[in-house]
Design goal:
- The complex is a heterodimer of chains A (about 150) and B (about 300).
- Chain A is mainly beta.
- Chain A has 2 helices and 9 strands.
- In chain A, the strands form 2 sheets. In chain A, strands 2-3-1-4-5 form a 5-stranded antiparallel β-sheet, covered by helices on one side. A 4-stranded antiparallel β-sheet of chain A has the order 6-7-8-9, with no helix packed on it.
- In chain A, a hairpin with a 5-residue loop joins strand 2 and strand 3.
- The radius of gyration of chain A is 17 Å and the shape is globular.
- Chain B has about 300 residues and is α/β, with parallel strands linked by helices.
- Chain B has a 5-stranded parallel β-sheet with strand order 7-6-5-8-9. A 4-stranded parallel β-sheet of chain B has the order 2-1-3-4.
- In chain B, helix 9 links the parallel strand 8 and strand 9.
- The chains are: A mainly beta (about 150), B alpha/beta (about 300).
- The interface between A and B is medium-sized, with 17 and 21 residues.
Chain lengths: ~150, ~300
């Protein structure tokens, strides 16, 4: 049976695959992936092998960095990154949660000092049953759903 | 012996190891019985209260003076450049660092002490940052428990009252979890110990149980740690009902262990009736006095190599 590509193949760049359906657009916004002139192809609610759906992002001529890949794990713990060169997958890896994330998330605690001072936010990440982020400053722990950037 | 706390910031109880907690308790005991009126001679300590406080500020400033040091500072944030001219805390702290040898602070926002410690070139001692940490309260509690029980290990300790919002009980439970104590939590369901603290205790393998009244456990306790159930969190009828289950009266102390001591971070409102004050079990006023010795101990360790010299 001929396999039909749901989303157009790219020559060079990165493919973020196996994003939970509904998170694709949030990832684009969070990583400001649209602040570029490169061609971006997005697939939303694509069927997977099973009965579920996924989102997918392809960005031409852009390499997703290791740091970005780990931050991606906060949105899409099952995502995989494919680095593409001349239409071939030259590297494929699963995302992994980073130990800490700095500068990109605002503390959900409105009384945390990090909101009023010239400092980068910093969260330590722990995963047991669910992912929790503990603020370096106010020491409070939050599930990802508390962060407007992640939810 | 090297003093591991020399020039160290004291921001959060979670930053202190078991041996550091024991060192502070042993130092407080030593200073209570052998005052050192010249230990901090020629040292200046900044007492920076960006939020008003009575006991913490007075006991801290007393501690500095009992050790022969001098205090500079302010007792509310309203008159500072921070409030009036919009200076950042980071800048204020850098400037104060150039005047004093150490810095003691209270601030209404969580995380302020951590931020200050990162900006300051002198040791910072946290005297309370919003609802987050109040490590010197925990240290005086540990010292008081040690003083009354001659140990911090394997004690039966009940916490009563507002266990949800009370940072005092959270920090104390975290610190005591390093000493293998058994905990009994007694609170109205709306003010129960938060899940994240219970998870930490589970991870540390600590025995704890949850109870609906003080009487259920009072006979087996070494320490009964009372806190105030804040009236404003309940409607009047509910409050009156709750009060009866979470108030300690003299008549409840008939069949208790001889070594039982009742502690309370104060202010007490009506959760301990005054007939308890005259029993041999009441120890909350001594506990408040111990705040001076615990803070002296911290200052002594952070600001002098006194214990290194003694070794």
């Amino acid at each position: 049976m001929k396999k039909k590509l749901e989303v157009q193949a790219i020559e060079n760049g990165s493919v973020i695959d196996h994003i939970a359906a509904g998170k694709g657009v949030k990832i684009l916004k969070f990583f400001q992936l649209t602040d570029t002139n490169q061609k971006i192809t997005i697939g939303l609610n694509l069927p997977t092998g099973g009965n579920t759906t996924k989102d997918l992002i392809k960005i031409e001529n852009t390499q997703i960095t290791g740091v970005q890949a780990n931050q991606l794990a906060l949105f899409a713990p099952d995502a995989t990154i494919n680095l593409i060169d001349d239409y071939d997958v030259v590297k494929k890896f699963k995302v992994a949660l980073p130990e800490a994330i700095s500068g990109v998330l605002a503390c959900p605690n409105s009384n945390c000092i990090s909101h009023n001072e010239p400092v980068d936010s910093l969260f330590y990440i722990k995963q047991k049953q669910q992912i929790k982020l503990k603020c370096h400053y106010c020491e409070k722990s939050f599930a990802t759903s508390f962060f407007k950037e992640l939810d | 012996m090297t003093n591991p706390l020399f020039k160290k910031d004291i921001v959060s109880i979670a930053d202190l190891s078991r041996s550091e907690l024991e060192l502070i308790v042993a130092t407080a005991k030593k200073l209570k019985h052998q005052p050192q009126p010249e230990l901090l001679k020629n040292k200046i300590v900044a007492s920076c209260f960006f939020e008003a406080s009575t006991r913490t500020r007075l006991s801290f400033e007393t501690a500095v003076q009992r050790l022969g040091g001098s205090v500079i500072g302010f007792d509310s944030g309203g008159n500072t450049s921070l409030a009036q001219k919009g200076e950042t805390l980071t800048d204020s702290v850098k400037v104060i660092s150039s005047y004093a040898d150490a810095f003691f602070m209270r601030h209404p926002q969580e995380g302020a002490a951590r931020l200050a410690a990162e900006s300051a070139s002198i040791p910072v001692i946290n005297g309370g940052d919003g609802s987050n940490q109040h490590p010197t309260q925990t240290l005086l509690d540990l010292f008081t428990i040690y003083e009354t029980q001659s140990s911090l290990e394997n004690l039966n300790i009940a916490f009563v009252g507002d266990l949800k919002y009370g940072r005092t009980v959270h920090s104390l439970a975290q610190a005591l979890s390093l000493f293998n104590c058994n905990f009994f939590f007694i609170a109205p369901p709306a003010l129960a110990m938060p899940d994240y603290i219970l998870e930490e205790l589970d991870d540390a393998g600590i025995n704890y149980s949850i109870h609906g009244s003080i009487e259920e456990v009072i006979g087996s306790l070494d320490i009964l740690y009372m806190t105030r159930v804040q009236k404003e969190r309940f409607d009047e009828t509910e409050y009156q009902h709750l009060k009866s289950a979470f108030v300690l009266t003299g008549s409840m102390l008939e069949n208790v262990r001889e070594n039982l001591k009742i502690l309370h971070p104060l202010p007490r409102i009506d959760e301990i009736t005054i007939d308890v004050d005259n029993t041999p079990y009441a120890y909350y006023f001594e506990q408040a006095e111990n705040g001076v010795y615990a803070r002296q101990a911290l200052l002594a360790l952070v600001l002098s190599n006194f214990f290194q010299e003694q070794a």
